Amino acid sequence: MTTYKVAAVYTNEDYEPYATERDTAVAQLCQQHGATFHALKDQVIFAKNELLGKSGRPSKVFGSYRKAWLEALRDEQLRPYPSAELYNASNLTKLPNAPSRPTLTEMGFEEFRQFIPSAELPPEKLVRNYHLTRNTPGRVDSSTRRSVHLRFGTLSVRELMRQAQELNPKLLDELVWRDYFMMLLWHYPYTATESYEPRLRHVPYRNNEEEFRAWCEGRTGYPLVDAGMRELNETGYMPNRARIATAGFLVKHLLVDWRWGDKYFSDKLLDYDMSQNVGNWQWMAGTGVVAAPWFRVYSPQSQLKQYDPDLAYVKKWVPEYGTSAYPAPIVDHKFARERAIETFRTAYRAAVS
Ligand SMILES: Cc1cc2nc3c(=O)[nH]c(=O)nc-3n(C[C@H](O)[C@H](O)[C@H](O)COP(=O)(O)OP(=O)(O)OC[C@H]3O[C@@H](n4cnc5c(N)ncnc54)[C@H](O)[C@@H]3O)c2cc1C
């Protein structure tokens, strides 16, 4: 600002609390220097205030939000922006004495070889079958694997939405969830670190560190949970069905605060996105703006039978399953289920009275 005469600053809007604060500070700086500041919509189809309920607040029912989303959708909203054409040498002005762009190493990144799915649109066949395959973590083509690209903007959400709109409404639904959680985080930034549901802010979690470590390392003796955690540790990815199983198990079976799990996922997931992670963790814990009922405790064994009946997923990530090297269950399901319901119920009732 002091070196160049800046007329305007353009950026894409970002809803994370830190980003909101940062952009507010930059906007103020621009104002002080007579430059205009423009934060534009790019990462979502409908921005934070475009689809509010009658009360002027976000709807707390996903079905109502989805209905409004679908009704408001116009073809042009799913058209890709011509950014590749506009971003060319003749459109860019070279600043005299401009500092060179820092390299990734200079920014503190280290090289780490890891599988990254293609940034192209997923194959048509996969998208057509998505509703049939999405809950089978043992298949490599069970879901699109595009979350990391949506996270970093290396695939346009508009293009993926358009493909989903043409080929598979279930996939479109999942992408609408993404818009929804982004909007919720902007309106309720405190939910990044606090339960939305005030009656569940004082659940006496056990937070047993040894059990937490066993969960992190995939040593709980529940194979679907262990497979998910081991895949996460090794690849930085975990299929949605396994995220549900591992998150539910941590909060309900082990009674560990959902924030511990949220933090662990944030350290490990390549597609980590605060709005999606917090939204989903609070959903699983029963504490969110939208949430599964707090008394719902999934059985990890029933989930295994339902979603990995031939053990394809488990065999891939937990090769010692079925041998004496595999640990016994860290806690009995029936006992843990009753303990979780009782703990949550007591906390809930105490907060109400
Ligand atoms: C506890 C927990 C934590 C999660 N943390 C994250 C996270 O940090 N980042 C993240 O992108 N997703 C997160 N998810 C949502 C979901 O698991 C991933 O988006 C999905 O597994 C990514 O794989 P995919 O691209 O193959 O998804 P697909 O099934 O192919 O879905 C396509 C896209 O739809 C969106 N989507 C799918 N499922 C969901 C969902 N449940 N909520 C919101 N959007 C969804 C994602 O953008 C995804 O890339 C989390 C889910 C749970 C249960």
Automatic annotation (TrEMBL):
Protein family per UniProt: Belongs to the DNA photolyase family.
Cofactor: (6R)-5,10-methylene-5,6,7,8-tetrahydrofolate; FAD
Name of a matching Pfam family: DNA_photolyase
SUPFAM superfamilies named in the record: Cryptochrome/photolyase FAD-binding domain, Cryptochrome/photolyase, N-terminal domain
Record keywords: Chromophore, FAD, Flavoprotein
Protein name (record): DNA photolyase family protein
Domain Photolyase/cryptochrome alpha/beta: 1-45
